[in-house]
């Protein structure tokens, strides 16, 4: 009799544990979705190429160290001085009613040019002054006369080329009449426009740097 009672107690304990595992408050269930033929494929890892890596970099205008694009100033004097000289010496010779002349030398080209980056925005500027040596020949009193002179361009800055000024000085022309001097000086002032065009080209190249 005692052995039969113990078997009933053990059976009841097992039944309660089973019920607790199936219906208790701490139980949980989960589902696993099986892949089907029409399901979207899972993304595959892709190795980035060096070119992809470059495209992912921020487009900073400054130097490599200036990744935030904060204040940075670059001195462009050396490039600007050489570039202005090259452009001005490429100006073609001019022909006038009584003669012709050309730019022989850029004897003075002094100033400053710079590029500034502020908050990843670029600004450029410059201030220069020039002196050009001119040589040419004119017909004076039915004779061919060699004439040399200087054209001075007082200080000018970025965006001011519409107001570019020039001054002409003739050398060794004491034996010329005042009228001949005036005529030759007026002829040389025609260099203003081609010089302005070359300086405008310089400004555009400065912007593009």
TrEMBL record:
It comes from the Eukaryota. Residues 73-209 form the Activator of Hsp90 ATPase AHSA1-like N-terminal domain. Residues 10-21 have a biased composition (Basic and acidic residues). Gene3D superfamilies: Activator of Hsp90 ATPase Aha1, N-terminal domain. GO terms for cellular component: cytosol. GO terms for biological process: protein folding. This is Activator of Hsp90 ATPase AHSA1-like N-terminal domain-containing protein. GO terms for molecular function: ATPase activator activity; protein-folding chaperone binding. Belongs to the AHA1 family. Residues 1-26 are annotated as: Disordered.
């Amino acid at each position: 009799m005692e052995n039969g009672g113990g078997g009933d107690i053990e059976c009841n304990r097992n039944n309660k544990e089973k019920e607790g595992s199936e219906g208790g408050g701490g139980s949980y269930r989960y589902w696993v979705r099986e892949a089907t033929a029409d399901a979207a494929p899972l993304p595959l890892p892709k190795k980035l190429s060096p070119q992809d890596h470059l495209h992912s970099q921020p487009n900073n205008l400054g130097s490599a160290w200036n990744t935030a694009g904060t204040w940075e100033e670059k001195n462009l004097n050396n490039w600007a001085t050489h570039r202005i000289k090259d452009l001005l010496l490429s100006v073609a010779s001019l022909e006038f009613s009584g003669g012709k002349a050309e730019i022989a030398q850029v004897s003075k080209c002094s100033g400053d040019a710079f590029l500034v980056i502020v908050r990843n925005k670029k600004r450029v500027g410059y201030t220069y002054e020039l002196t050009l040596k001119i040589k040419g020949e004119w017909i004076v009193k039915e004779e061919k006369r060699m004439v040399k002179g200087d054209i001075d361009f007082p200080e000018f800055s970025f965006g001011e080329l519409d107001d570019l000024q020039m001054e002409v000085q003739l050398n060794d022309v004491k034996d010329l009449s005042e009228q001949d001097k005036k005529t030759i000086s007026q002829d040389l002032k025609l260099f203003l426009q081609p010089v302005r065009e070359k300086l405008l080209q310089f400004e555009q190249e400065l912007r593009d740097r």
